[in-house]
Specification:
2 domains, 4-stranded antiparallel beta sheet, about 25% helix, globular
Amino acid sequence: MLRLANAALKLRFISPVKLSRWLGSTFRGGFGRHLRKIICLHPMRECDDCTIAKQCLFYLTYQKSHSKRGYAPPPRPLVLVPPFLPKPLEGSGAELEVRLLMFGDYSKYFPLVLIALQQFGSSGLGDRRHLGQNKFEVAEARCEFSGKIVFDGNLVHPSNLKIVDVSNLPRVNGKEFRVRFKTPIDLPEGFPPPPQLLLDLIRHRLILLVNEYGTGEKVPEFSCRGSLIRSEGEKHRLVGYGREGRREFWNCWTGFADYRFEKLDKTAQWLLGVGKVLGAGAKSSFGLGFMDIQPLG
């Protein structure tokens, strides 16, 4: 259905740090800038006028405007998911764990991603790089599926990067769950999402990825009936900047929600397992909508 790789990157800051709570736009923009520097053969040419754009990792990850199905921009084949910090980070000697998801055949570009990230780190993260701050190095990369080290700070061990088909992700068993929204999720109708909507949002993200980087087959329907036990949420207005200028996300939330399901078929259990890896909702390329799901009790 959809092959994917899932790695956890340990970033070690080697200069003073001053970071905001949300880093999704900053990571996406900075990584793209350095990815283009190391792979672009025609830096003075616009991507749309380049004859090799359709074979270019930067173009496919940042510039491609139409998906294989429909006319909306496609989900991106490489996604960096920085943590949403409990408070702004300031000081020295900081570390961050950033997840990297690679879909379809894009896992083969892992060494190139590492090079771009190391170049990114040597320049620095965000506007404070101009003050010599927020510089980092990739200290380690660990495969989330195999548990093995893929990059030890010096050498890449590509055989340790396990590729998993999404159809084989384990189901989440049980009837009561806590869903912790680790990065903000876009919810225009408010927090928390009802049980049916939560699963719909997971399935929708999966459909987009399967259509673009997988087999294109139909993602099965699910059946569930549940209720909310309790929840706590915090609303965020997120602001980011990119090639298109300023972007604002007005209805994003973090927090947790406890659900009780009277009915949850095997497809719904599998979708919850998918949600633990792929998240839910829109804007995955900005690291939004990633979650953890654990049984209660």
